[in-house]
Structures are given as C-alpha cells and as structure tokens.
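Record 1 of the preview.
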Amino acid sequence: MINSVTLEVDGIGHILTLTNISATNNTFKPAIPQSLLDAVSNKFLKEEKITVTVYGSANSAMSISVGVSIEAGIIAYVLN
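->
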C-alpha cells in the first residue's frame, strides 16, 4: 500500500497529497482550487517550463509511473 503521495511545483508550492492508495483504491480525481491551477498555468506560460516534485511513502518497495496530460488551445488569425 502507498501511504501517501505529494505533488509540489517549484515556485508555487503544494498542489495535492493523496493518501491510503491500494490496489483497490487507486483512482482519484482530486479537487484542486482553480486559483492554484491558474498559478501553475501562468508559471508554465511565462517560463516555458515547470519543475514538479512527487514524493511519498509506502509500506514496501515499489515502482510508480507518472503521466502528464496538458490541454492546449490554439488561436489563429487570418493575415491580410
């Protein structure tokens, strides 16, 4: 079992902590305040990079996979 997993963004701080993750309790859709998501987005747009730190604890050795999904919008203008 994973006791906890915490995600932080450099320059922003703590984003979320998930606890008590097991083989049967392993899907989460955390409620992250929009203001925090906006801060991360603004930092990414301004600096064109972010550093994310993920850490936690477990009751046995294990490996984890981390996925990142970024939604993007495109604005196009007609040139005359």
